[in-house]
Amino acid sequence: MKRTTSTIISYLTTHSLSSSFSSAAKNFSTTPRPFPDYSPRNPSISDTDLVRRVTTTLKRRHLEPFRRVLKPYESRFKPSHLIWVLINLKNDYPLVLNLFNWAKSQSQQQFHPTLESLCIVVHLSVASNDIQTAKRLVFEFCAKPKIDVSKSFHLFTEMLIYTYKDWGSHPLVFDLYFQVLVENGFVLEAQKLFHKLLRYGVVVSVDSCNLFLSRLSCNFEGIKIAVKVFEEFPELGVCWNTVSCNIVLHCLCQLGKVREAHNLLVQMTDRGNFPDVVSYGVVVSGYCRIGELDKVLKLVDELKGKGLKPDEYIYNNIILLLCKNGEVVEAEQLLRGMRKWGVFPDNVVYTTVISGFCKLGNVSAACKLFDEMRRKKIVPDIVTYTSVIHGICKSGKMVEAREMFNEMLVKGLEPDEVTYTALIDGYCKAGEMKEAFSVHNQMVQKGLTPNVVTYTALADGLCKNGEIDVANELLHEMSRKGLQPNVYTYNTIVNGLCKIGNIEQTVKLMEEMDLAGFYPDTITYTTLMDAYCKMGEMAKAHELLRIMLNKRLQPTLVTFNVLMNGFCMSGMLEDGERLIEWMLEKGIMPNATTFNSLMKQYCIKNNMRATTEIYKAMHDRGVMPDSNTYNILIKGHCKARNMKEAWFLHKEMVEKGYSVTAATYDALIRGFYKRKKFVEARKLFEEMRKHGLVAEKDIYDIFVDVNYEEGNWEITLELCDEAIEKCLVKET
């Protein structure tokens, strides 16, 4: 009757194990009582005669089948006879075991071995070093259905103690019994056995105690008790080892007490338990979980200083943390450095970095790693394929995503709900709703159940296509299937309604969210705020911010950027500048997008002095410009004919690896051409064409005329064809 985890939790909450061990520590005596003498009932004269004949027959005919040898005695043989025969055969273990198995095989229940004979054979098995049989016998007893569990185990424990002195006297038998109890989930019975054995001066081995700790640490309540037991067991004579410390290190980290775990790691050497790679790995994992990379790196240096090598577990945890922090390039470098320590990246490590690159949108780097895995015969699993498919979908390359999905099927890997949902979401974001629903249907045909995320992706795609009513119907279908929409699902509909300008319905839906218990979050309010800003209703947008703050919802940087964009589009540039000051006062650092909105509007107004001041303020605050910043500034300076400044910014932009837009190239070319800087203009035009960017028709006209006047007929015709193909045909 094996205990389930829920049963163990019930036992732990009903009975305080830790308080019991505290009590045991107080009552622990250094003068243990002796084990009792074994004194079985004496046989009658007729019983003695039967026992003698059975014993003699077994010894003489031990090579023959037991069923045939003992057939004449079956009708008269009783459980009590078994014990008396065992006394005569105790020094011949194979005969003992065969006889016991014969008795067990008897069809009549009354002839089956008693608890006493079971304990005797368990003792003899341990004494004969047949641990496997001893453990099997105890396991069979534990697995039998029992009306009164506590009473049954009490009787077995008492009988095992009673038969100990004369039938083996090997303390390993109690260790074995303790282990079977723990493995089967009888934690309370194991605790009682521990107490009982203390009275006889027997302390369960540290390996068995470690098993006990491991079993306790399977659930949250048990983890707390395991830590207490670790603190109190030494008072009862248990000498912990490195494995014990590792289990408790894990428990402390599970409880969020990573610093306490670190302290224990430091104290281990003083306790005589030298930390191993597992010890460091557990604490490293704990610090990775709370994002303390500095502590992690110090621990790794300490580990290496002790001559230990970081293993895959440590590397994977650090790589996972780096990827979570967006430092995927550094994670890849660490992956490359693993080999120096004789550790070879496995499927898990590669998948972590691949997933990190996909989340950053760097799909090409992810695909390179994926190809590298296959070259090195590291087999990608369903998680690896799903990560790559999700990344490719995010980049909008749905043909490649489908090819990867098909490759996965060819490899014999069965996609799960996550894989299908990633593909569905990709099609929805690409506006290919027919394909999205086709994949959804395949998913259902495979027996997989679409979840809330799947339906939310489909609803999002429908909303972006303006099919709000269909999206609403889909959500009703989801509810009918027993799936509860969440705040993300509602936000999808809010976003769709805002995009088509149905603000009234949006406000109504937000009220419904409140009533349904899915309170609008920061994203909900930011989405509606963006709609108000685009309509020029800044007072309503500002009021939404006040409501958010009253509800203690923390506005994000996106929220403030939405407001900033609204102020700028409404020409309220001073309000925009005040918003930046307010953000800084509240400790919220603006990003490049925040400043870009202001700079763009000042450039449109041809106020380059104000634009430059904002750009300098941005630098002073430590905010790095992005590609949009450079494109805005370059176009602004070109419009103001500050070509020297524009050229400098273009050069800096290219050096930093940012992409120059076609509109920026057009502005630079026009600016240089007007200033009669033909060499610079031509160089930029060629650079633009090399990058596959299409210039405006008037730019093509400039260079068609220039090449015609220079007599470059071939280039002139080439540019004419290009202009017709890329400009005129496109316009029609």
From TrEMBL:
Q: Which Gene3D superfamilies match?
A: Tetratricopeptide repeat domain
Q: Where are the PPR repeats?
A: 241-275, 276-310, 311-345, 346-380, 381-415, 416-450, 451-485, 486-520, 521-555, 556-590, 591-625, 626-660, 661-695
**Keywords for this entry?**
Repeat
Concerning PROSITE patterns, the annotation shows: PPR
InterPro entries found in the cross-reference section: PPR_rpt, TPR-like_helical_dom_sf
Q: Which SUPFAM superfamilies match?
A: HCP-like
Entry's family note: Belongs to the PPR family. P subfamily.
Protein name, UniProt field: Putative tetratricopeptide-like helical domain-containing protein
Its source organism is Medicago truncatula
